[in-house]
Each structure stands twice: as C-alpha cells, then as structure tokens.
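Hi Prof. W.,

I finally got the Small ribosomal subunit protein bS16 prediction working! I wasn't sure whether to trim anything, so I left the full sequence exactly as given:
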Amino acid sequence: MSVKIRLARRGAKKKPFYRIVAADSEFPRDGRFLEMLGTYDPMVEPAAVTLKEDRIKYWMGEGAQPTTTVKSLLKKQGFGSNPA
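And this is what came out:
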C-alpha cells in the first residue's frame, strides 16, 4: 500500500474547497481516505490553509509522499521537504 498526501475536492461548481488527506494511491481522488490532515480554501485572499502538523509528520514518517501541490502548500506553511 502506497500512501499519498493529496487534495480531495469538495465545494460547489466554481467554488472549490479542498481537504488535505492521507489516502492509498489507488483510492479515487474524492473517494475513500485514511485520515483528514487539513483543509485548503483558495477562494479567500490570502488562501486559507489549516494543517494538523503532528499527523502530517506522522504520515511522512511512515513513508507517505505528498503530491506536488500539497508539497508546495506545506512549504509555504513552513514545512521543509523532510519535516521529521
């Protein structure tokens, strides 16, 4: 099982809202996930990001790989490429 930290889209048409989740790489984008790790709202200025930092560190310690978008969000929030 390969775990990814990625975005799952919520919200209405043309009003996106995302959950940052830990999910098996074979699960659908908006389907089942292992744990919700935060949220991302690009519709407010500046974009609102909330994170459960301890859980993100846990999943990355277990070998979860963030997607490029999540990696850039984490970097903007002060996480390095390897926060452990």
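The chain has one domain: 3-72. Does that look reasonable to you?

Thanks,
D.
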